[in-house]
Amino acid sequence: LDVLSAHCPVEMVEEHRVLDLSSAEIEHVSQNIIQSHLDTCQFTSEELTKMNWNFHSQDDIYSLQSKPCEWMWQLCAIHISNAIQYVVEFAKRIDGFMDLCQNDQIVLLKSGCLEVLLIRMTRAFNPVNNTVLFEGKFGGMQIFRSLGCDDLLHAIFDLGSALCRLDLSDEEIALFTAAVLISPDRPWLAESRKVQKLQDRIFLALQKELQKRHCSEDLLAKIISKLPLMKTICNLHSDKLEFFRILHPETAQTFPPLYKEVFC
Ligand code: CLR
User: What is the mean pLDDT of residues 232-250?
Assistant: First the structure.
C-alpha cells in the first residue's frame, strides 16, 4: 500500500459487454475469493471456536480500564493495523484486483478496509454475551472504556450482533467482503467501469452462494441493509481519531505507519 501517487488515464475505449458469465466462470470467481479469504482471514473458524471459551478475567478488565487513553488507542491502532495487512493480502489475491491501476488499488483499500474489518469481526464476535476477540481473549465493550468512545463502541457492537444474527458462512463472508472492497462508487477512482465489472462478477457469485440457502433474496437484502451502519461507524471512527490527534499529537505520531496511511 503506497502513497496516493500513481496517475493513470481513464480508459478511453470501453467495450460494452453484457454480463454473460457461464456457471463455470462464476464458480471460478467464487473459488478464487473463498480461497483468498481462507488464506488471509487471520484465524480459522476452528481456532475461533476454541478461543470462544477464553474470556478476559475481571482483573484483565480492570487493568485495561485503568490504562491511559493514549495507551489504549495505541494498542487498538496496532491491532487494527495488523488486521489491515491481512485485508491488503486478501485484496491482492482476488483475480483482477492487481490488474487495476495502482491509484485504484489504493483508493479501494483505503476506503474499504475498515468495512471489511467490521464484516470480518463477525467471525471473532460472540453474540451470546456480546464479546469480541481482543488480545487473544474475548471481552465486552467495557474493556475499551478508557478510549472514551462509548458511542463508537456501541455502534460497533450493535453491528457485530446484527451481522452475527445473519449467521453468515465463511464462503458468504468471503464474497461479501470482496464485493464491499471492490466498490465502483468510491471517490477518486480512475477506472470505475473496470471496478464495476469486477464487482458485478462478485455479486453474481454471492447470489449463487446464497441460493444454497432458503430465502436467499431476503438474506441479500438484509446483508445490504447493514451497509449504512458500517458507513456511520467509519465516519464516527474518523471523527474520534481527528479529535484524539488534536488532544494527543505526540501519541498519534507513533501510531503504526499503515494505520496512519489509511486513516490520517
Ligand atoms: C476484526 C477481525 C480481524 C481481527 C481483528 C483485529 C483487531 C480487532 C478487530 C478484529 C475487531 C475490532 C477491534 C479490533 C481491535 C480494536 C477494535 C476489537 C477482531 C475495537 C472495537 C476498538 C476500536 C477502537 C477505535 C477507537 C479504533 O480479523
Answer: 98
